[in-house]
Amino acid sequence: MKTLKLNNKNIGLVAIMVKLKEISEIKTGRNYDEEEGSEIKKVNPESITQKGSIDLSKTKPVSGADLKKEDICQKNDLIISIVGPKNKVGLVEDDNLVPSQYCVNLHFNNEEEAKDVHEYLLSKEGQEKLSKNKTGEALPRISISDLKEIDVPL
């Protein structure tokens, strides 16, 4: 949010709404072969807490053999679960994490925007927007194209 000024006087906070696709690169996760002892960890929906952190004890080590550098999340990226009834959004704070096929990675060039979007998507309004875009009864899912179109405030 930005403070709006008129004649050098603050008149309040103003949120500029932008689509996720305008401020982030959205990359789909995939199914990786598990490999004990690997430093690279796969994040599943159950690895993401409702409070928005990533529980490393619930990640799985995966083989790095077929990974590309761009597959690995960077600090301050977001990992969002796209399958299941719960809308989970985790902020990446550790190295060597990759999203599973049930998640996507949102990469931001601006760390502050990433944290603002993370906070917003965890809010009641953000959770409602994610839920509204899910389809399917047995296993609700949000499409990448719908996720890209979600408006978020900056």
Detailed description of the structure:
With 154 residues, the protein is an alpha+beta fold. The chain has one domain: DNA methylase specificity domains (Adenine-n6-DNA-methyltransferase TaqI, Chain A, domain 2, Alpha-Beta Complex), CATH 3.90.220. The chain has helices spanning 20-23, 111-122, 124-132, 144-148, and strands spanning 2-6, 9-14, 17-19, 24-28, 41-43, 60-61, 78-81, 89-91, 97-99, 103-108, 134-135, 141-142, 151-153. It has a 4-stranded antiparallel β-sheet. The protein has a 3-stranded mixed β-sheet with strand order 6-5-9, with no helix packed on it.
The helical percent reads: 10-25%
Total domains: 1
Task: Please give the CATH architecture.
Answer: Alpha-Beta Complex
Structural class: alpha+beta
Uncertain segments are none
